[in-house]
């Protein structure tokens, strides 16, 4: 069909009047954070333990069951995720319902580990001053859960150890171990270790336990570095708000089973022992119950723990506001050191993580 000249002219004019849409400017690249200031996660992440997922490279932190405040409720082992140990996002709770193998108690001091191709979560089940607390185990195919409870690993009464809480999992020389224990002045008090079965799900011989620290320590973490095993343990009251004097002390040994010795040459199986690593200052109370040491891509070690801001120490109508803290750990003469021996309160360089594992 032929187009009339007048119509062709109108179509040409319309085409000439069209304009291309302006190019959309790409969003600016995010500014890479170069510093951080404590705390790195609020309101609460008490008794933190950190796992790095070998597949994604993400870090996951797990905390004690706690009330987070009005509108947030109680978190049944909260889990948060981060790429850099500084920027954390709450993901979910490890449990949707509380394990049923004990009548009363909270789920405290969870310790995650990657074991036999799965994610294991050892945890304490206790009330305050519990006469017979216990330790349980849950598993998941993903680090963020949800976790399926496998039930009780053991009760204090079955181990013959008072206040058997605060589990810490470790492998050494092809053997799996669980360390545990907390404050007590009773007989057989202290921090103990016991060999686990090859699958990490049971204790074949409860009589094979061995003691490594006195009953004025809790929250054991053991780090292997060069020729030494380093014991990190917390002392004093964790939960006295702005007045808390919780702190971390250390000892070291050439063997996993000890003896662990402090800088003064005292065995830490003696009460009142351990060399001070970190203690409170006028702004941060109760620093302690640290996680495993994390080494960044620049070779710097990082110390992760909870602390209480003196200016904001309590959740309204709730518990101590034990937030998540991070500080650089250095080594001097074969001993770990935190700058000033106290939590940092000013801007600090962020850890260096260039790539995911």
TrEMBL record:
Site keyed Important for catalytic activity, responsible for pKa modulation of the active site Glu and correct orientation of both the proton donor and substrate: positions: 166
Record protein name field: Arabinan endo-1,5-alpha-L-arabinosidase
PROSITE patterns linked: PROKAR_LIPOPROTEIN
Protein family according to the UniProt entry: Belongs to the glycosyl hydrolase 43 family.
Pathway: Glycan metabolism; L-arabinan degradation
Ranges that cross the membrane: none
Species in which this protein is naturally found: Pedobacter yulinensis
Signal peptide location: 1-17
Coiled-coil stretches noted in the UniProt entry, renumbered to this chain: none
Active site: 47, 218
CDD domains: GH43_ABN-like
Keywords attached to this entry: Glycosidase, Hydrolase, Signal
InterPro entries: GH43_arabinanases (IPR050727), Glyco_hydro_43 (IPR006710), Glyco_hydro_beta-prop_sf (IPR023296)
Gene Ontology biological process terms in this record: carbohydrate metabolic process
Top-level taxon in the UniProt lineage: Bacteria
Molecular function terms, GO-annotated: hydrolase activity, hydrolyzing O-glycosyl compounds
Record flagged with keyword Ligase: no
């Amino acid at each position: 069909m032929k187009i009339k000249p007048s119509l062709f002219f109108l179509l040409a004019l319309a085409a000439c009047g069209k304009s291309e849409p302006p190019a959309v400017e790409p969003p600016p690249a995010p500014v890479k954070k170069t510093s951080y200031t404590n705390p790195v996660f609020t309101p609460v992440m008490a008794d933190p333990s950190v796992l790095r997922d070998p597949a994604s490279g993400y870090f996951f932190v797990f905390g004690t069951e706690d009330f987070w405040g009005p509108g947030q409720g109680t978190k049944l082992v909260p889990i948060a995720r981060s790429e850099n140990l500084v920027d954390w996002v709450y993901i979910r709770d490890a449990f949707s319902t509380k394990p049923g193998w004990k009548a009363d108690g909270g789920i405290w001091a969870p310790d995650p580990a990657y074991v036999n191709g799965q994610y294991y979560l050892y945890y304490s089940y206790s009330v305050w001053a519990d006469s017979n607390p216990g330790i349980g185990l849950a598993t998941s195919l993903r680090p963020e859960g949800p976790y399926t409870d496998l039930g009780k690993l053991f009760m204090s009464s079955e181990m013959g150890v008072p206040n058997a809480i605060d589990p810490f999992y470790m492998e050494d020389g092809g053997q799996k171990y669980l360390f545990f224990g907390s404050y007590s002045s009773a007989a057989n008090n202290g921090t103990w270790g016991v060999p686990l079965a090859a699958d990490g799900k049971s204790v074949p011989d409860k009589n094979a336990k061995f003691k490594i620290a006195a009953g004025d320590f809790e929250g054991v973490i053991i780090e292997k570095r060069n020729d030494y095993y380093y014991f990190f343990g917390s002392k004093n009251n964790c939960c006295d708000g702005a007045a808390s004097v919780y702190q971390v002390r250390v000892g070291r040994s050439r063997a996993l089973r000890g003896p662990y010795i402090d800088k003064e040459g005292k065995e830490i199986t003696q009460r009142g022992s351990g060399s001070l690593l970190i203690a409170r200052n006028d702004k941060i109370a109760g620093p302690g119950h640290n996680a495993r040491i994390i080494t960044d891509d620049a070779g710097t070690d990082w110390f992760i723990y909870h602390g209480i801001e003196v200016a904001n120490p309590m959740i309204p109508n709730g518990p101590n506001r034990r937030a998540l803290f991070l500080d650089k750990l250095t080594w001097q003469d074969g001993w770990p050191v935190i700058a000033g021996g106290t939590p940092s309160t000013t801007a600090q360089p962020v850890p260096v993580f260039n790539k995911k594992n």
